[in-house]
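Below is our example:

___
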Amino acid sequence: KKETNSAFEVGLKGRAFNALNFEVAGFLTNVSNMQFFEFFVGDFGLLRSTSNIDKVRIYGVEASLDYKVSPVLKVFLNGNYTQSEIKKNSGRPYTVGNKSPATPDFTLNGGMQLNAPVSNAVSLIGRVDFRVVGPTPFHTVQKNTTPTIFGLPATYDNSTRDTFATVNARIGLD
């Protein structure tokens, strides 16, 4: 079925001290027929299946700051905290109350950027970014235990990725 979203967001943007920009917002998204992709592996090979989750609610807050420390250096920080919940799932009713697949609990990004003139024609450009992504479920079945075709219980605890962090750095001439 076709996925549809109804979203609402309210926020505030501003500037202080002629060098600090800030934004903060709260959001709510109701999703009908969220498309969910899963893979089945068996004697038949690999099968990719698309199904729908009837109703999902996603809500949270996000904020960002950037500060111009000097004419050549800027620092920034932004992040969000997200809650999600499967409200109705006729394909797997026992997953109601679980989190939305592929929706991290939080993200945090930050870094600094340098743009320093070396001469009248050349500038040194440098940037360091870090990113932290919170736990992210990738399946509708999460802490549930379900029976297999062999009558044995199956758990999906490994369908949620743990928090991870990355750092990127680059330097160049412009």
